[in-house]
């Protein structure tokens, strides 16, 4: 009996160490999952913000006079207070946010492209084409 007890010494310690190892892998897995969920949530928020900003500009263009819509292109936006305010809102809402606006005043075709950069994820963009001809 004494020989058997001598061979079983340390078994409880090995079992405890294996348990701790399994628990540590579980905790690391949960931390990885949380990081992945945070990245996905941030990406979804930025896409939602971009869609909202595009809708806001389209609404502004709908109420703008047809003759004044040409001032909402990328080249002329700084001269139009409503467009400049919108661009500043884009820069504040999206990290590294920039805009590209094109308007065909004869057909009413509007092209809006928003681009932003998320650290460690690269560049993202949201592109919309619509028509605001009245």
Architecture overview:
The chain is an alpha+beta fold. The protein has one domain. It is built from three helices and three strands. The protein has helices at about 1-10, 10-65, 80-95, and strands at about 100-105, 110-120, 120-130. The chain has a three-stranded antiparallel β-sheet with strand order 1-2-3, with helices on one face. Helix 2 (about 10-65) runs antiparallel to helix 3. The mean pLDDT is about 90.
Keywords:
134 residues; three-stranded antiparallel sheet; alpha+beta
Give a brief outline of the structure.
With 134 residues, this protein is α+β, with helices and mostly antiparallel strands.
The portion of residues assigned to helices is 40-55%
Number of domains: 1
Global geometry: rod-shaped
Number of helices: 3
Low-confidence stretches: none
C-alpha end-to-end distance: 98 Å
Beta content comes to 15-25%
User: Based on helices, strands and strand pairing, what is the structural class?
Assistant: alpha+beta
**Biggest sheet architecture:** 3 strands, antiparallel
Please report the total strand number as a whole number: 3
- Whole-number mean pLDDT: 89
Please state how the strands of the largest beta sheet are arranged side by side: 1-2-3
Rg (C-alpha, Å): 28 Å
Order of helices and strands: HHHEEE
Fold topology:
Layout: H1 2-8, H2 11-63, H3 81-93, E1 98-103, E2 109-118, E3 122-131
Antiparallel strand pairs: 1-2, 2-3
